[in-house]
Amino acid sequence: MRMENMSAGSIAGSRSEQSQGHISQAAGSPPLHEADETIIGLEVHCQLDTVTKLFCACSTDYRSDGPNTHTCPVCLGLPGALPKTNKKAVEFALRVAKALNCEVLPESVFSRKNYFYPDLDKAFQISQYDKPLAVGGYLVIEGEDGEKRVRITRVHMEEDPGRLVHKGGVDRARYSLVDYNRAGIPLIEIVTEPDMRSPKEARRFLNKLRTTLEYLSVFDSEKEGSLRVDANISLQPEGWFDHEKKSFKGRNRVEVKNISSYKGVEKALTFEVTRQRNVIRKGQPIEQATRHFVETQGITTASRSKEEEQDYRYFPEPDLCPLRVSSWVERIDLPELPDARRTRFIGQYGCSPNHARTLTGDLKLADFYEKVAAKADPVLSATWVADTLIGELNYRDMGIGSVSPSHLIELVNLVKSKTLTDKNAIEVLRVILDGILGNQPAGTPSQVVARLDLGAADSGTGPAAISEVIKEHPQAVADYESGKKEAFMFLVGQVMKKTKGKADPAELNAMLRKALDGRDK
Amino acid sequence: MARSRIFFSPDDRVNAFLTTCPEPEYGTGSLEGLAIAIKDNISTKGIRTTAGSRILEGYVPPYDAHVVSLLLAEGAAIVGKTNMDEFGMGTTTENSGYGPTLNPLDTGRVPGGSSGGSAAAVASGMVRMALGSDTGGSIRCPAAFCGIVGLKPTYGRVSRYGLIAYANSLEQIGPMARTVGETSRLMQVIAGHDPRDSTSIEQPYCHTPDKNIQGRRIGVPEEFFGAGVDPAVAAKVWEAIELLEKKGAEIVTCRMPGMAYALAAYYVTCTSEASSNLARFDGIRYGPAVDTKKSWHEAFQERRGMSFGKEVRRRIMLGTFALSSGYYGKYYAKAQSARQQVKLDFLRLYKEVDVLAGPTMPTIAFRLGEKADPLSMYLSDILTVPANLAGVPAISVPCGTVEGMPVGLQVMGRPFEDEVVIDTAYAYEQAVV
Question: Residue A173 above 50 pLDDT?
Fold first, then answer.
């Protein structure tokens, strides 16, 4: 059919067809409007965190080992070797399908996706095509205007290919090496409907998806390369996309490939919005194309489209039987998922909605918080974990895993009992984190407090320091009395210096004012 | 366990072997010290395995096929790897990348294929038994042409783990030997479930052949004696069937209309699967290295163009075309429904009869070069491909000669009734002794 069309086109004269196409595009496509909507759909590939590979018994824990050390005849694609489906990987994928509210098909089929590439040892990838594992689900995200559902088109399983190592960089390599350690790592591909309306929403979707997968214990986002995203993006007039009777053909969409980080998705899509706007502004058509995201430069570049046009010649993998696993779904007990946990945090611990969202947005963080909240004031703990701790960790590029909940419990309790001021508590936290980072443990919070003499002053030190300062700075006192506000601030500073920050600043302020105003003149 | 050696230095005048092992070790077991030849598309750890192709020149597998492990565990001595049509693509063993094998009974003729080397090695007495593989008749055809016995087991009965894939959904490894008894003995060792092969079934073969066929119903499909079948061959096969009747079997003639589509369904399916299976041979991991000064695309295209033989290239192109977008429904999907028709034909007939019988091949062994036209060679597979399409067991047993060359009687059975097929062939063999 396709060939007949093509030959008809070339006989009838491709020139007239081309110009017609151009006219219809120009006549039908409206100029850029500020209210034009960004339409985004995602294809997300996640590595399932199984112990062994998808079709053989090789270990998936390859990242710290030498090249081609986690391989066998099956994942090397040696002639004669046969795949055998890892039941655990199927269970993991089913957990995802259930959590994403998908329908698991009664029969799903592995198919071969045929293409030549040196990292693909068999020259085909075992994937799923016309009969995926599951279809038709959704994930609720925090959209630009409140909660929204992003619909999931399908969830399917496939194997990861190997990896090419270009010696001396992609462009200038004199040769490339192949490492098949990654070959056969189980992946799930999650395809969404084009339901996201901004790069920010796309990132929120990914964050929510990541969190959900981690709650399901099937995914480890900290493993390098465990997530890869392809994004489809187009700009359409407001409401056009959701309108059933479309008044014109619509602008073409562009597929951006090769995005491998959460931040990268927002970056790549933001760049692409700007690029497409500029093209439309110039009155040029957007060409349906595949572009690659260059993470280091934050831009997308055009791929040579001819090379990208592949006919994968899918057909059912004859070495594997169809999967009939829909009945397994009933047996899956899903753990508490992020939304439920957030609601619980608000109810059980009295967290603010914002704190609850931050804390439950990461499995390890949520677990950490619950350990702290069990032994310290939950509301105060929420502030300390969600605001202070995260800020300090991010500043140091550290993960929550490096901190012990017991440190936070102690710290929050010291603050709660007013043994430590907020300011000095932050100081203690910094000392502890720097100690962990420098591999020289600083000890427990109380030990740090004692060593640095940061404990809150007892009530006697304040008045003593105030009377000393008043005695030592008669000029400033005189200036205060003549109404100069700066003089008061100066005196406060002097008192703080004497108390080494141990006293509560608000209290000190009041005491100093009282002392100055009540003086016998 | 004490291991012994045998010495193997055959006078291989027919080019049956691609590799020989002069002093193979063997252990104890039911095949203790027995010289067994292995078709060259079955992986043998440490022994060069090329599947008859130049593109696998020098490839030494780091692992044993499941069947090879089983043979070794029963004490067999693996004496060498036998010649074959490249990747199993042929009916004469002339398509080998290492020169043709000759028929030991008449060196001006082909031994059949693609397991021609295994058949010739057995027929010439160099080995007692051999393993072949059968995708569309590749065990039965050379067995018929060389005058030996060859069994294509039920699909799933013997593990394919380690068999270099040509057409995964059709092929099975099977035993080849001088007699039905020896064939059965080898089958007993290689059959059984292998968890590494997802299509393998838990159904061990534990059987002593029984020649009593009193009351067995034998169906004879008219299509097996249709156009293209040499009347002299047909007459020999009828004689054999009549002898079985004399021994107590009941003969029923029947029809198998699905045969009309069998050859087309077979060639679309096997070439499609082959185009995918053989794509991995790109000169990077196996065989002669590619020219690294060229771009990867250029280099692997050149390697594939140079190292694959003509028939392999033809089938890769046919299969690639059949799977192409826009043609899949027209060819591959249609072939699968035709295949289903053939299967249904068998199942319907097996309600009436216990086994089906007919000639294995329409003619005696071709002269070398006689089937230069690929289409006429494809046509000669018409009687063997139905069993592969349906996955049923089928055996070829010698039943006399025409012009001094052997003729094969083919017996096909119900799925997983390899024992009945063996027994029927055994009954004939014992009757003529």
Answer: yes
Q: Which residue of A has its CA nearest to B283?
A: A118
Contact (Cβ atoms closer than 8 angstroms) between residue A447 and residue A432: no
Residue of A nearest to B332 (CA): A315
Nearest CB partner across the interface for B198, out of A79, A84, A311: A84
Residues 6+ apart with CB under 8 A from B331: B268, B272, B321, B322, B323
- Lookup: tokens for A120: 């693909």
Indicate which residues of B carry an active-site annotation. 39, 114, 138
Taking contacts as CB-CB distances below 8 angstroms, the residues of chain A near B49 are 79
Chain B residues touching residue A311 (CB < 8 angstroms):
324-325
For the segment A241-259, what is each residue's pLDDT rounded down to a tens digit? Answer: 887 767 677 888 899 988 9
- Going by pLDDT thresholds of 50, 70 and 90, the confidence category of residue A287 is confident
Q: Please check whether residues A203 and A299 belong to one and the same domain.
A: yes
Please count the structural domains in chain A. 3
Residues of A in contact with B41 (CB under 8 A): 80
**Does residue A178 sit at the B interface (CB-CB below 8 Å)?**
yes
Question: Does A228 fall in a domain?
Answer: yes
Which amino acid type is present at position A171?
D
Which residues of chain B from 248 to 287 reach within 8 Å of chain A, CB to CB?
A: 272-273, 275-276, 279-280, 282, 284-286
Residues of B (180-219) whose Cβ lies below 8 Å from A: 195-199
Residues A110 and A202 in one domain: yes
pLDDT of the residue at A19 = 36
Per-residue pLDDT of B187-239, as tens digits, reads 999 999 999 999 999 999 999 999 999 999 999 999 999 989 999 999 999 99
Judge whether A304 is closer than 8 Å to chain B, CB to CB.
no
CA distance A238 to A254: 18
By the CB < 8 Å criterion, does B61 face chain A?
Answer: yes
Interface contact flag, A79 B164, Cβ < 8 Å: yes
Domain span including residue A366 = 338-438
B56 touching A, CB under 8 A? yes
CATH (residue range B1-433): 3.90.1300.10
Token pair for B214: 């009193």
A116 touches B: beta carbon within 8 Å: yes
pLDDT over 70, % of chain A? 90
Assess if residue A131 is contained within a domain.
Answer: yes
Taking contacts as CB-CB distances below 8 angstroms, the residues of chain A near B164 are: 79-80
Coarse DSSP helix, strand, coil percentages of chain A, rounded to the nearest 5 percent? 40, 20, 40
Domain ranges of chain B: 1-433
Same domain? A343 vs A273:
no
Helix (H) or strand (E) holding A110: strand A110-114
Q: Rounded to an integer, what distance in angstroms lies between the CA atom of residue A200 and that of residue A207?
A: 10
Of A290, A308, A326, the domain-final residue = A308
Asked, for residue A504, whether it belongs to a domain, the answer is: yes
Q: What angle do CA B93, B97, B102 make, to 5 degrees?
A: 35
At A5 the pLDDT is 33
d(CA A237, CA A280): 12
Structure letter (DSSP) for residue A322: P
- Residues above pLDDT 90, as percent of chain B: 93
Give the residue ranges of chain B where pLDDT is below 50: none
Least confident of A33-42, A124-133, A403-412, A449-458: A449-458
Kindly list the residues from chain A whose CB atom is less than 8 angstroms away from the CB atom of residue B43: 78-80
Token pair in block for residue A68: 């081609």
Tell me which residue has tokens 């499941």. B66
- List pLDDT tens digits, range B383-413: 999 999 999 999 999 999 999 999 999 999 9
Do A415 and A293 share a domain, yes or no? no
